[in-house]
Amino acid sequence: MCTSGMKDTAKILSTLLVSLTLVAMGSSCGSAEESLRGTVSLDGSSTVFPISEAIAEEFNAVKPRVRVTVGVSGTGGGFKKFLAGEIDINDASRPIKGSEYAEAKASGQKFIELPVAFDGLSVVVNKNNTWVDKLNVAELQKIWQPGSSVEKWSDIRAGWPNEPIRLYGPGTDSGTFDYFTETINGKSGASRPDYTANEDDNALVRGISGDQYALGYFGFAYYAANQSVLKIVPIDGGNGPVEPTQTTINNGTYSPLSRPIFIYVRETSLDRPEAAEFVDFYIENAGLVAAEVGYIPLPDSTYQRAKERVANRVTGSAYIEGPENIQDNLIDP
Predict the structure, then answer these.
(1) Where are the beta strands (DSSP E) in 201-256?
(2) Which residues, 6+ apart, have CB-to-CB distance to 175 below 8 Å?
(3) Burial annotation 73-93 (CB, 10 A radius, 16+ → b, else e)
(4) Does some domain include residue 18?
(5) Are 238 and 131 members of one domain?
(6) Cα(280)–Cα(128) distance, integer angstroms
(7) How far is residue 315's CA from residue 67's CA, in Å, rounded to a whole number?
(8) pLDDT tens digits for 96-127?
(9) Residue 141 phi, psi dihedral angles, 5° rounding
(10) Number of H helices and number of E strands within the chain?
(11) What does the alpha-carbon distance between residue 44 and residue 118 come to, in Å, rounded to a whole number?
């Protein structure tokens, strides 16, 4: 009886010990998983915002103690905060400007330039617009150039309605504004001022969708998410009208309004584990998330090289310094 009781007690103690060990292991794994904490801050482009916001949400699901904030102040506004040391990452729908690069260099700030997806800047009209079938670059310039005399649709093309054209577009801090004005009007920032400007692309969608005589432009993802209330305008860049799609943006036939979009990472931010892990997570998931929100993923090999660029702390901009001065130029400038 005594021996049997001792054996039973031994079994109970053994089982209890195993249980406690498993609990301890689980607790240890949980604490290791949750030990990463801190804040990572992003700001900048409304075009890149849907990608960054979605990635921040996914990251928070696996690293709940890291707070990731994603603001929208336009590419230029984001670079101002980035260069002032206020944020870790700037979302940018254009490459860094020479003046911004010079400011960073003068203050000794180093950054890593990472393309994250392709975008096709999209020209859109109201869903009930029945007359616009396409526009060419010359007509876009006629509409948007400084000093434009276009006030009615009939001023663009004979036979179009003798009705006022109401224009919508991004504000002057937007990288989309910079890219569009440089591509269409030949100089970054060159634009007629009498249009409804907003850094929030969703506000532009609401304006155009509520006005039959409206025309505007923004990133492809905002058209893709609002096709039921907007009509896309095919653009003739010299080889016939082409509509922006994932295929035409990716293969470059949607020209001249296809472009890469970026994040710029402060090198010193990577010294913080939470920021370094977030950047790795961003690159790992950028392609999948870009496709989900309406943009076009880069080749897998480009994302792999982006990881290596971060790991090796390859700083600078191929768009300013030239690809020969960047260890691994991810996309041809």
Answers:
(1) 214-218, 230-232, 235-236, 241-242
(2) 44, 45, 47, 74, 75, 76, 92, 93, 94
(3) bbbbbbbbbbbeeebbbbbbb
(4) no
(5) yes
(6) 44
(7) 26
(8) 999 999 999 999 999 999 999 999 999 999 99
(9) -65, -40
(10) 12, 13
(11) 17
User: Does 30 or 145 have the greater pLDDT score?
Assistant: 145
Q: What is the residue range of 292's domain?
A: 35-118+260-325
Give 3's Cβ-side CA count (13 Å radius).
Answer: 0
Confidence category of residue 322, pLDDT binned at 50, 70, 90:
low
Amino acid identity for residue 239 in this structure: N
Helix (H, G, I), strand (E, B) or coil at 209: helix
Find the CATH number of the domain harbouring 97.
3.40.190.10
Predicted TM-score of the model (pTM) = 0.79
Does residue 305 lie within any of the structural domains?
A: yes
128 by Cβ neighbours in 10 Å (0-12 / 13-18 / 19+) ranks as exposed
Q: Which of 220, 241, 256 is the last residue of a domain?
A: 256
d(CA 90, CA 88): 7
Strands (E) in 71-199, as ranges, are 89-92, 111-120, 122-126, 135-136, 166-169, 196-197
CA angle 294, 297, 303 (to 5 degrees): 145
The closest of 182, 174, 131, 180 to 156, measured between CA atoms, is: 131
Integer CA distances (angstroms), 106 to 8, 89, 91, 263, 320, in order? 76, 19, 22, 21, 15
Q: Which residues of 279-317 are buried (b: 16+ CB within 10 A; e: fewer)?
A: bebbbebbbebbeebbbbbbeeebbebbeebbeeebbbb
pLDDT the model gives residue 1: 42
Q: Which two tokens stand for residue 143?
A: 């509409």
Amino acid at 82: F
Return the SS3 of 62: helix
Tokens matching residue 155: 């001023």
